[in-house]
Amino acid sequence: MIVVTGAAGFIASCLVSRLNAANFNDVVVVDNFSVEKKLPNIRGKKLREYVDRETFFDWLDTNHAQVEFVFHLGARTDTTEMDPAVFDLLNLNYSKRMWQACCKYQLPLVYASSAATYGDGTLGYTDTEEALFPLYRPLNPYGDSKNDFDKWALEQTEKPYFWAGLKFFNVYGPNEYHKGRMASVIMHAFNQIQQTGSMMLFKSHHPDYTDGGQMRDFVYVKDVVEVCYFLLHHRKDSGIYNLGSGEARTFLDLAMNTFNALGRTVDIQFKDTPEDIRDKYQYFTEADMSKLKSIGYDKPFTRLEDGIADYVQNYLVPGMYM
């Protein structure tokens, strides 16, 4: 059996689809299944068992001998949540229990970290300088919770025989319909263009960037789950890895490609970045992907143009799930 936590969420549900496509059908999905808006993400998938996140560790005590691998992708991901106690409970302490359980039962573990750990990026975006991890200053409690767990994991003398933390950059793609404000800018662009025929982007408040010239590392969710699938079989070279495309692109690139995918005339407008986030706004992120490539991952990452076209035309327009 393969355990996937957060399985009704965005990335994890796409991973379940990838596992099913490879004939891994004994998948145990773990989540808070009372959140009904997420349930379509796992409808129709081949699953072994549903386990509530509150009872998972009791379930694991009973069933650990049948578990082959754990993907711990469940987390509170709302970057606007300002209560650290929420993240301590769901992101930090739950992840510690997962780590300790995988040590106890000798289970390989892949867990979700985040590029939010890098803060404003002044120390760069390299995953090879672990000595810098204590120096990172994330911009919100969500980033703090992910960075705190990364640091804790590195400090442990007892570790799973294989483990990997994946610092997700700006992931986009199918199965994020339920995420509301936290959905990718591509989904917001799609909705705005369909409803109004235009797209609104934030103005730049930085002299080095034009309006819409702010840059992010956008990575397609299909590439993310391919890396997870690679690690399922690799099971060596433990550590923390960036997971982005390795190429920063502008929000103008993103918006124009969304218009193109819809066959619509480009109409982009700009508004001031809200003052409450203006001082914490990131103008550039780009994953250094050399560490992942150094352990043998050699698949190319999807170009933004191709990822947006696939996402918009094959999922958003028909309302399909992966």
Distance between the termini: 21 Å
The CATH architecture of the domain at 2-172 and 218-246 and 283-301 would be: 3-Layer(aba) Sandwich
- Taken from the alpha-carbon principal axes, the silhouette is globular
CATH level-3 fold name of the domain at 2-172 and 218-246 and 283-301 = Rossmann fold
The helix-strand sequence is: EHEEHEHEHEEHEEEHEEHEHHH
Instruction: Find the count of extended strands (DSSP E, 2+ residues).
Output: 13
Secondary-structure-based class equals alpha/beta
Major sheet details = 7 strands, parallel
| Rg from Cα | 19 Å
Query: Which residues sit in consecutive blocks of at least 5 with pLDDT less than 50?
Result: none
Largest sheet: spatial strand order: 3-2-1-4-5-6-11
Count of DSSP-assigned helices: 10
CATH hierarchy, class of the domain at 2-172 and 218-246 and 283-301: Alpha Beta
* Fraction of residues in helix: 25-40%
Strand content: 15-25%
CATH homology group of the domain at 2-172 and 218-246 and 283-301 = NAD(P)-binding Rossmann-like Domain
Mean pLDDT, all residues: 94
Binding site for NADP(+): 10-11, 31-32, 38, 53, 73-77, 146, 171, 179
Active site: 142 (proton acceptor), 179 (proton acceptor)
Keywords: Carbohydrate metabolism, Isomerase, NADP
Protein name: ADP-L-glycero-D-manno-heptose-6-epimerase
